[in-house]
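S.,

Sequence below, as promised.
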Amino acid sequence: MPRKKETPGARRKTVERRVRNMPGRTRTAIIVAVVLFVGTFLIHFMGQTLLPARENAITDWRFVCAADSGAIEGDLSSYQQATGENRVSKAFGAPYMRLQYTLPASREDFRLVLRTAHNPLRVEIDGEQVLDNGYGTQSFTGGSYQSITVPGGEARELDVYLYAPLAFSLEAYVEPAEISAFESFSQYIGFGVSLSLILLGAGLFVLGLCLAGRSGHIRRLLLLSVTVLCGGAAGMLYTYAQATALLTAPYWFPVQLLTQMLLMMLVYTTILSCHGRALRHAAVWIPAAIVCALIPLFQTAWAVRVAAVVMTAAQLFIAIRANGVFADAASEETPHMGAMRGLLIYAALVGLYNTCGLFLGLGLMSGYLFYGSIALMCVVMFVIYCRQVVYLDVKKQERVQQMRADSAWLEDVANLISEALRQKEERPFLIEIARSLSGIIEKNAELGGESVDVHASIGVRAGDEFEEIYNDGQVEKCDYQVIYEHLDRQEKKILIGRTSADMLFQQDSHSAVIHLENILYGVGAETENIMKAAFLNLSTVYQNFSLRHDVSDIQEELFINLATVVEQKSRSTRSHLIIVSALSYELCMELGMEEERARLISLAAMTHDIGKIAVPESILEKEGALDPPELEQMKQHTQVGYNILSLQKGAFFETAAMIALEHHENFDGSGYLGLQGGQIDPAARLVRVVDAVDALLSRRSYKEPWAAEDVKRYIAEQRDILFDPAIADAFLSCADALLALRERILSEDESR
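The prediction came back faster than expected:
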């Protein structure tokens, strides 16, 4: 039954409950994300500003900035002086820079290394141009690394002309000319980090295959492995751009931006994949962001800024929507939500810092730190996924065992009833009940490692005295009259003691007592449920036994009676079942069904929640949202109901079983079993609408009743989402008549 929309008062109470229950997890997720991001930012900040320059670094530049390239040509008449502590900085709105430095005299050749934020350069030594990689013609260059071999000699003037429409940075140093390019490249930590990520991704891929082959979570684990592999590959590309002169073409810069943006989208997808509903709600922006990430390929500064704006919006949307879904997660399929929310917020902070820095021209986070952060997130996610695999596998086995335990005794009841109904006479009918109950009690004792031999006898009241019609030979001196007088005064005609049980079956002028004893180890909860469920239904059969109804009619009646007992577990009344039945019939007729088919569906609809007999009352009556284990146990009632009803034969039970199994399926596939559209049984689709309508209009432990107009509006809004559009339209076309019928049924029920 839907719990998605509430009245303002109930909604306020729900919010208050969430505020009481959720802040601990929310605060923890936010604090962990912020602490991780602040730590990452501090490492980046210290690496950029606080760490001392490397040996042989050039820091004391004379520099000027201008909005036009012509303003920095010729002799420098005025300039700023940089020092090791006060490094070069770019003035706002002045993308053109000229930096000048006097190279000291050197006897040997040396290599001058310049590393920038992909800024085009023109380098001159004593007025002679030695390098030009697009200065004045390109907005950026593909690589960050430039190397110039300078022959030994006297002191010379070094002039560096630089264009920085986006971010700016400059690191310059000299190193011996005899160091090979490979030796210089291998010194960079990024090479080792990137290679480690690639190897880690490959290892996670193999380990993921080993785990996923048994767990069924191959999509998540392999997606995570691919994310790590892509992170390592993107890190290697970044390292080549930072430490070699191989990537000089201008298009390499937008390619690197594209890989970073796509990698962020892959990280978001990986995080969201741990919760399918979050992926459906938030991933709508991922394809759009991927397309917009291609904009920098136009190789202009405005294209980069447009892409940064789009990516910022996409990340905000994904983070906000997914975090909201994670916060509301209430399923055993999504454990460790707090950790995943923390990673989501951390990923959003890192991504937002990069895209905002790109737009404002403040510079990106260090690539090595960026890919290291992704590696950290992926390792944490892998640990979480592995725990999920183990957790969910164990929980799955526990649920299977629990479901078998819960439904086993229900199947015993169904089998007992079926066997009893095959008897055409009263005495064989009673004897079959006594024998079957004895066998069930003995079987349950054996499952518990015990062995008992239950004794049974039956007395039938003829006039004022009882005649014993059955005794397995082991019951001595059973006083049926005393049992009768005691039970006749009780509302419930069954008495279960510690080691014995008595049942009183009554007709208008006839009574029978079934006595069971020698239950040596006591009556357990499962056995007591079996005996009560069997008695409640078979007593109805016994009352009508003399009328000699058709067996199939008796079966339908007793299962409807069992459904009524189940409904009373949640403090509801029989009126809910009557309303669902009556409205189902009228809706069937509105849809143009034959009268016989409409009658069948309306009767079968009364057993739609029969499986709730296996759900504890504490769950049925809980106020507010259910915990994940409770929700999972509640979901099992559809399968339990199907198991009970499908044991019987006939059109009624076939229809009832499908309704019980699929009445919580949504038309868009978001229901319990994930069935969609025409995959859902037509009768179940119809009962889905009727059950929702009565549930919304009724007071429940978790909500107040809705107004009729709100219910009609909800059905219209959820048309083609939760409800079959044809059935929703049929309901809306006769909604006033159906709601009036519901009110009459409630009035009649109250007047009784």
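Confidence is low (pLDDT under 50) at residues 1-23, 547-552.

Coffee later?
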